[in-house]
Design the sequence.
């Protein structure tokens, strides 16, 4: 089935109707013109298709629940994931930019919040200037549910679709007829919705299509295995064997925390807890819940039962984490700590002779510094989707080797986080005062101690990374080769991480180093492989507010290769010529900026050296004077330096302008 729709066939009222939904979950249909009102769904970590058009968000048809992003990001496996002011430019927008340019999605959703004082749904800078004009997006932008506050302003900003409908199409019609909204702009947004309907038509025409739940289940299990991060494994306490003597403690082993709350809630096709996985393997283990998942005080009887169970076995697997009520869409966590009653139980169990293995369940990082020394092994399990129980058993019993890496640093204290002072802000405003110094970019730059660094994750085998070779491939590009070897006795995967560190002075504050490339490599025992990376200009660039563009400075850059941001195995240096995009100098540019400029520097230096003024030559020979004038605009030097200095400055400015005019021609 093929379909095409033309906005020119629609009336003004029909165009307006397309820019709002038909109901809570459907696009607006236009039967007279054959335009269907397709049902739309979201998929935070699996399909969330509503049971009815008026149904609540947590009532959806069964679908495979894959690990949420909190866990999947720790897989560092793009292939697996494919299966399932400056800070904004360098930190918050690049992930969206990459998806738009490489995956070409059909739809994008804007958020609820304001960005720099403007609601996202009305933000022309984001929706049109950046998303459409700069990145080339040609699909549909819809509002998050209830995020559209002004139909006309939103459509003018680049929003196609308001969801759910506010039944205010007349606002669009009146705005067009009154000249407040250009009809060609409405036509463009409506045509994009018609194009979406046409793209979807072939899939909707497939009769009797059914997906393979078993195949999806297998992918979900593989994703969960790769999402887990082995943070600690003293004396190789893991993996266990099926016949090892161990006990299981913790309600999370029985009641899995497998997904987030709110509108990310999926109705899974099936579920496995860790206890389910043991039964599936035919393994018997003594179990004690240890605690409840509510806010009630700890029950002494539960503690006693858990301690008694642990005391009878050589190893205790303790499943702890954050109850679902601790984190959800719609509100922020108030602490990074696991509930106190669970930690008190952990400390009590640590006093027994039983070796203690801690398995975590949480939607984002938790503080471990207060208890990690009491654990012999720690698995960060995040939220693992519907197959999390079986996947955890795969790791615990060694059917799979851990390969996850932390996608976020784990601080020693919440107060160590660079956003601690600024968040949550006040009076409806949050100041992103940390700028580009987010996560490891901050911790590594200032040398702040962390419990576990960005990119960290252990394995049941060992690896070496060496034989680094770095070569410039042009003024702003470099090629990197490095050899990774499995030096252990088990097959496993290592994620080779490439960080770039600018070595010279910079006109902007830059992090110590930044992750610019990575690759996950699976190797058998003793196997080696050369891994290659091509680093383009963006790997070396920063966002220049003055240029309104990315800028690569000339100079030396260290290329660091390792297994985490703090485990660097090899470092090489590459010298780049940069993009040559220097800022145009003015009278108000500082002396230091003039000297550093590739055009202005030689001109000013020649003007100084050509002067026979004793005052000028005395200034150049006096280090204190030269240090003092570095941040003086040239116009101030003209005013305060006397006639001789003024003559040198005016000569340099005139020659610079003449040279730039010639270059522009």
Sequence:
């Amino acid at each position: 089935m093929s379909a095409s729709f033309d906005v020119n066939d629609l009336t003004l009222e029909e165009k307006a109707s397309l820019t709002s939904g038909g109901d809570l979950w459907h696009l607006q249909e236009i039967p007279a013109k054959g335009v269907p009102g397709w049902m739309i769904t979201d998929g935070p970590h699996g399909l969330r298709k509503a049971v009815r058009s008026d149904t609540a968000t947590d009532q959806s048809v069964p679908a495979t629940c894959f690990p949420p992003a909190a866990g999947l990001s720790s897989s560092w496996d793009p292939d697996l994931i494919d299966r399932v002011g400056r800070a904004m430019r360098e930190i918050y927008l690049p992930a969206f930019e990459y998806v738009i340019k490489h995956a070409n999605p059909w739809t994008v959703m804007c958020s609820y919040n304001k960005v720099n004082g403007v609601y996202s749904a009305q933000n022309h800078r984001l929706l049109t200037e950046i998303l459409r004009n700069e990145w080339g997006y040609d699909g549909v932008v819809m509002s998050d549910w209830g995020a559209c506050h002004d139909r006309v302003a939103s459509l003018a900003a680049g929003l196609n679709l308001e969801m759910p409908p506010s039944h205010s199409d007349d606002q669009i019609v009146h705005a067009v007829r009154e000249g407040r909204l250009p009809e060609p702009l409405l036509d463009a947004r409506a045509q994009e919705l018609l194009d979406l309907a046409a793209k979807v038509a072939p899939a909707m025409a497939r009769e009797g299509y059914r997906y393979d739940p078993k195949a999806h289940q297998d992918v979900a299990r593989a994703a969960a295995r790769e999402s887990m991060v082995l943070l600690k494994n003293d004396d190789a306490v893991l993996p266990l064997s099926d016949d090892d003597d161990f006990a299981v403690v913790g309600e999370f082993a029985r009641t899995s925390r497998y997904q987030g709350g709110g509108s990310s809630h999926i109705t899974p096709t099936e579920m496995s807890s860790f206890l389910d996985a043991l039964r599936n393997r035919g393994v018997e283990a003594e179990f004690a819940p240890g605690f409840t998942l509510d806010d009630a005080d700890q029950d002494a009887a539960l503690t006693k039962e858990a301690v008694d169970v642990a005391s009878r076995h050589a190893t205790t697997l303790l499943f702890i984490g954050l109850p679902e009520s601790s984190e959800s869409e719609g509100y922020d966590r108030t602490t990074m700590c696991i509930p106190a009653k669970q930690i008190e139980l952990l400390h009590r169990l640590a006093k027994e002779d039983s070796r203690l293995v801690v398995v975590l369940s949480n939607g984002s990082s938790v503080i471990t510094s207060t208890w990690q020394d009491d654990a012999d092994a720690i698995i960060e399990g995040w939220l693992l989707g519907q197959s999390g129980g079986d996947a955890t058993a795969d790791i615990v019993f060694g059917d799979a080797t851990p390969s996850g890496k932390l996608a976020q640093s784990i601080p020693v204290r919440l107060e160590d986080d660079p956003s601690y002072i600024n968040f949550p802000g006040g009076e409806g405003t949050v100041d992103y005062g940390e700028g580009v110094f987010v996560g490891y970019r901050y911790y590594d730059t200032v040398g702040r101690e962390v419990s576990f660094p960005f990119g960290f994750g252990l394995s049941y085998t060992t690896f070496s990374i060496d034989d680094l070779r770095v070569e410039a491939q042009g003024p702003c590009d470099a090629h990197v080769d490095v050899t990774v070897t499995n030096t252990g006795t088990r097959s496993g995967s290592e994620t080779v991480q490439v960080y770039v560190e600018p070595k010279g002075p910079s006109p902007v504050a830059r992090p110590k180093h930044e992750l610019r490339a990575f690759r996950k490599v699976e190797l058998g025992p003793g196997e080696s492989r050369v891994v290659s990376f091509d680093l383009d200009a963006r790997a070396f660039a920063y966002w220049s507010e003055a240029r309104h563009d990315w800028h690569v400075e000339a100079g030396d850059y260290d290329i660091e290769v390792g297994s985490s941001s703090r485990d660097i195995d090899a470092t090489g240096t590459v010298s780049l010529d940069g993009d040559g995009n220097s800022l145009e100098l003015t009278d108000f540019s500082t002396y230091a900026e003039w000297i550093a400029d590739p055009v202005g520097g030689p001109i000013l230096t020649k003007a100084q050296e050509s002067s026979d003024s004793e005052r000028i030559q005395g200034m150049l020979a006096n280090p204190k004077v030269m240090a003092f004038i570095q941040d003086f605009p040239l116009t101030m030097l003209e005013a305060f330096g006397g006639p001789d200095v003024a003559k040198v400055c005016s000569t340099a400015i005139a020659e610079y302008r003449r040279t730039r005019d010639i270059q522009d021609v």
Notes: Residues 404 and 442 are 22 Å apart (CA to CA).
